[in-house]
Specification:
It is found in: Membrane. 76% of the residues lie in helices and 0% in strands. The protein has 7 helices and no strands.
Length: 152
Amino acid sequence: MSETTAAVTADSTPAGVVIAESATARGRRARVALRALQVALALFYAIASALPKLIGHASAAESFERLGWGSAGMYTIGVLELAGAIALLIPVLQSVAAMALGALMVGAFVVQISVFDGQYAATPVILIVPLTLIAWARREHNADLLRLLRRA
């Protein structure tokens, strides 16, 4: 038996070493990781981002007053973020929600640069990366959403 043949036999494989992994197992882990990312982002948008706006926390109110948008703008952005957070968890809406939240983050980046001198401009840019990944990975759900809308 040659060294190459011996390396791939079950008897010669050291414990804990994976020679080949099935595509199904990799795909399953990728789907679970993507779903975990969606849940983490949904929690971030709902709790850390939308909640302060919706309860009128002083820091959020101050920022929106400085923008000149007042409480109406603050509540509107809070509702959009909460809706996006919820939609990230609904299979047929995942891709569209990620795209919408990404667009919201582009707006947040522009506001951070133009009004707040870039103080927190990195946050929306960082959030755009996983949102883009989700929008791309879940894009097949867009066809499902279109079918549902056409039936209605």
